[in-house]
Amino acid sequence: MLLFVPYLGPSTNAIYAGVHWAKRKKAKDAALAATLEAVRGIGLGAVDGRVDLVFRPRLGKGVRRRDTSNASMTAKLIEDALVKAGVLADDTEAHVRRVILEPAEIDRQAETGTWVEIIELDGDKYPLQGIGGGLSAKRDK
Question: Which has the closest alpha carbon to 91: 119, 63, 55, 53?
Fold first, then answer.
């Protein structure tokens, strides 16, 4: 499933600059409103089972480039909004296997926002193995 959310949150660097709680709340509220609008716009319902989430910012006119990892705050706010919207049951490891941040798409003619790809996993091919388990344990079997 591919969803475009017309929202690009503050850079993760802003967290380290000591952003005031009111600004963080404003960003969270904006992410929720944009995500709800996008979800309703395409009629996206609840997703059963575990997923991978892929986030790719789209930078429109006048939006400054950022390091790929600086989209992590946007990804977290949209992930939380997907839970509030009822698309995801929760954002714990039982429901979200991994979050992937992709480099930004630059399209100065398009609307700024974030592409979100929700990849439903077939069954539980890659169960959470805990610290030290992970992929290397799978390869050894």
Answer: 53
Angle between helices 21-42 and 72-84 (to 10 degrees): 60
Asked if pLDDT for residue 74 goes beyond 60, the answer is: yes
Kindly state the average pLDDT of the residues 114-125. Answer: 86
- CA neighbor of 8 nearest in space, from 47, 66, 61, 58: 58
- Asked if residues 115 and 56 have their Cβ atoms less than 8 Å apart, the reply is yes
**pLDDT tens sequence across 5-43:** 999 999 888 766 677 888 889 999 999 999 999 999 999
Please state the pTM of the whole predicted model.
Answer: 0.84
Other Cβ atoms closer than 10 A to 29: 12
User: What's the pLDDT tens digit per position in 40-68?
Assistant: 999 999 999 999 999 999 999 999 999 99
Residues with Cβ < 8 Å from 102, sequence gap 6 or more?
A: 54, 55, 56, 68
Residue with tokens 């990892």: 69
Query: Is the Cβ–Cβ distance between 114 and 58 less than 8 Å?
Result: yes
Rounded CA-CA distance 87/90 in Å is 9
